[in-house]
Write a structure and sequence with these properties.
Number of strands: 12
Structural class: mainly alpha
Strand order of the largest sheet: 5-4-9
Radius of gyration: 44 Å
Helix content: 40-55%
Number of helices: 19
C-alpha cells in the first residue's frame, strides 16, 4: 500500500523517500551566502542583539556579576533548584516495568562513579545556562579494565564555544587566541546545556546580556549620585558681607568660610551674616528612584519578578503570592533543565559502556506527596460511599500495618436481598401515605360544622386548601378566607383552634410513624 496523504480536494499525494529524508528549510536554501552564514573561522556569528549592537562578545558578560543586584538575583534563582533535596537517580526501565539485571548493573556502576563527584557544583554549572545561553559540560573518562569510568564532569566557559552552519558545537577558545581552526567536539565528550536555543540562535537566550544596559545605567547613575551627594549632601555656607566691604575683605571672608567646612570654626568681620542652607531632598529622591528602577529591571530579567528578591513594604500579600508563583514556575523549569542534562549524561554513559540494548539510568526530582490534598480527596470519596482497604493507606500515606486499622463497613445488600428491601420500603411508604390521608380526612370531617358538611363542593375546597398549605400560617389564612363568609367570628375562632390542634396532632403522628418505620 502506497504511503501518502490526501489533499483537501481529495487528491492523493504519495510520500517520497527523498523528500522525507532531506532538509528543506536550511540556511543555504534560504538564500544566505557562506559569508552571511559564517563569520570568523567559519563560525556562526552570535545573533545576540545586545552584544551585536555593542560589537562585543559574550566574554564581557562576566563583568556584570560585579553588580550586587545581579549577583544576588543569580544566586537566588540558582539556590531555588540547588537547595531542592529530592534529586535522585534510578535504574532505567519502561513505564510500569521492572529494570533488567543489565540496567541495574549499569545503574550501580554509574552511581559508584559519581560517589566522589561534587554533584552540587555540577548542578550549579548546569544552572548557568540561563545566564550565558549555554553551559558546556566536559566529561572526563578513565579506562579501567573493560569499563569506561566517569571521573568528573567539568563546566566550561560558554564563550569558548561556538557553532557551525549546521548548529554543531565547536571549541573555538578565547577570541583571538586560538591560532588553529575551530575544533569539532568529539562524540561522548561534551554535553551542551542550552537555554531556549533555536535553529536561528543555537547560542541560546542569554539573560545576562539583557542586564547589560541596566547595569551600565546603574553604574553611571551611581557615579553621578556620588558626586551629587558629595556636593549637595553637605549644607551650603552662605556669607553676607557687611555693607561697604571691599573685594579683598570678601575674599578673606570666603577663605575663612572654606576653612569652616573642615574645622567648623570661622572668624568673620563685624556686621557680616553667615547661614547654613541644606539642599532639597527632591533631587536625591529622583536618583534613588532611578537606581531602584535599574535593580527592578535586573530582577525581572533574571527572576521573572521582583518581590522574591526585594520588597519595599508597600506590596500586598496577593501581589507577593503572585510573584512567588512566577518564581516557582521558573524553578520548575530550571529543575527540568537539570534533569534533561543528567539524562543526557547517563545516556552517553550507557552508550559508551553497555550499548543501545540497555536502558540508561534516569534522573529526576521526586517531589514529596501532598498528603493534605490526598486526605481531602479520600474524604470526599468516603462521603459518596467509597470504601478503602489497608493497602490504600500503606501505598498513599506510607503507613505501616501496625500504625492503623480500617473500620469495618456495614454489610451492603445485593441481589435478592436488595430487591426485597426495596419492595418492603415501597410498601411501607404506601402504607404511611394511606394512613396519613385517612387521618387527614377524619380530621376534616370532625372539624367542619354540621351546616357545612352538606356541601360537598365546599368540603373539597377546604381539603385542597389543607393539602396546598406549606405551613400552619398558610393553612390558617386559607381557612379564614373560605370560612369567614359562612361562620360567625366566635365560631370561626373555635373552628380554627381545633383545626390547628388536629393538624399538629396529625403531623406528630406521621413523624412518629416514620421514626418507628426507620427504627
Amino acid at each position: 500500500m502506497a504511503e501518502g496523504i490526501y489533499a483537501p480536494d481529495g487528491t492523493f499525494i504519495p510520500f517520497s523517500g527523498v523528500d522525507l529524508g532531506t532538509e528543506l528549510a536550511t540556511r543555504q536554501n534560504a538564500g544566505l551566502t557562506l559569508g552571511e552564514i559564517t563569520g570568523w573561522l567559519d563560525v556562526l556569528p552570535d545573533p545576540d542583539p545586545v552584544l551585536r549592537k555593542r560589537h562585543d562578545d559574550a566574554s564581557i558578560l562576566g563583568d556584570l556579576s560585579a553588580d550586587d543586584q545581579v549577583t544576588t538575583t543569580m544566586l537566588a534563582r540558582k539556590n531555588r533548584a540547588l537547595n531542592c533535596p529530592h534529586f535522585s537517580f534510578r535504574a532505567g526501565a519502561p513505564e510500569g516495568e521492572s529494570p533488567t539485571p543489565e540496567a541495574e548493573e549499569l545503574y550501580r556502576r554509574f552511581r559508584q562513579d559519581l560517589e566522589r563527584a561534587n554533584l552540587r557544583s555540577i548542578i550549579s554549572g548546569i544552572l548557568d545556562a540561563p545566564f550565558w545561553g549555554i553551559s558546556p559540560l566536559e566529561l572526563i573518562w578513565r579506562r579501567g579494565g573493560d569499563w569506561w569510568h566517569l571521573v568528573d564532569i567539568v563546566p566550561r566557559p560558554a564563550h569558548w564555544f561556538g557553532f557551525d552552519q549546521h548548529n554543531s558545537p565547536l571549541f573555538v577558545g578565547a577570541w583571538g587566541t586560538l591560532a588553529a581552526e575551530p575544533i569539532p567536539l568529539p562524540p561522548g565528550k561534551f554535553v551542551i546545556v542550552s537555554h531556549h536555543a533555536t535553529y536561528d540562535n543555537p547560542y541560546g537566550l542569554r539573560l545576562l546580556s539583557r542586564c547589560l544596559w541596566p547595569v551600565a545605567f546603574k553604574r553611571g547613575g551611581l557615579q553621578f549620585y556620588a558626586k551629587f551627594v558629595e556636593r549637595h549632601g553637605m549644607p551650603w555656607v552662605i556669607g553676607e558681607a557687611s555693607a561697604g566691604a571691599e573685594r579683598p575683605d570678601k575674599r578673606d571672608m570666603a577663605r575663612d568660610l572654606a576653612r569652616m567646612v573642615q574645622d567648623c570654626v570661622a572668624v568673620v568681620p563685624h556686621g557680616s551674616n553667615v547661614q547654613l542652607l541644606s539642599a532639597g531632598q527632591t533631587q536625591g529622591a529622583i536618583h534613588e528612584d532611578f537606581l531602584s528602577r535599574q535593580d527592578r529591571a535586573i530582577s525581572k530579567v533574571l527572576m521573572g519578578q521582583t518581590l522574591t528578591v526585594e520588597t519595599d513594604g508597600k506590596n500586598s500579600l496577593a501581589a507577593t503570592e503572585a510573584h512567588k508563583d512566577v518564581a516557582d514556575d521558573i524553578a520548575q523549569a530550571d529543575k527540568a533543565m537539570v534533569t534533561d542534562a543528567w539524562n543526557e549524561i547517563a545516556w552517553l554513559y550507557a552508550q559508551v559502556n553497555a550499548g543501545p540494548g540497555v536502558l540508561a539510568p534516569l534522573a529526576g526530582y521526586d517531589e514529596p506527596k501532598d498528603l493534605k490534598s490526598r486526605a481531602e480527596l479520600d474524604k470526599l470519596l468516603k462521603e459518596i460511599g467509597v470504601s478503602f482497604t489497608a493497602e490504600h493507606f500503606m501505598e498513599n500515606y506510607d503507613l505501616k500495618p501496625t500504625e492503623f486499622t480500617v473500620s469495618a463497613q456495614p454489610p451492603e445488600l445485593s441481589g435478592p436481598a436488595l430487591n426485597f428491601a426495596a419492595r418492603r420500603a415501597g410498601h411501607q411508604e404506601d402504607a404511611l401515605v394511606e394512613r396519613a390521608q385517612k387521618n387527614l380526612d377524619t380530621a376534616i370531617k370532625k372539624m367542619l360544622p354540621d351546616a357545612l358538611t352538606s356541601s360537598r363542593e365546599f368540603v373539597a375546597e377546604v381539603e385542597n386548601a389543607i393539602r396546598k398549605a406549606e405551613s400552619f400560617d398558610d393553612l390558617q389564612d386559607a381557612l379564614v378566607e373560605l370560612l369567614s363568609p359562612s361562620m360567625t367570628p366566635d365560631a370561626l375562632e373555635s373552628f380554627l383552634a381545633r383545626a390547628m390542634t388536629a393538624a399538629a396532632g396529625h403531623g406528630a403522628a406521621s413523624v412518629q410513624a416514620e421514626d418507628e418505620e426507620d427504627g
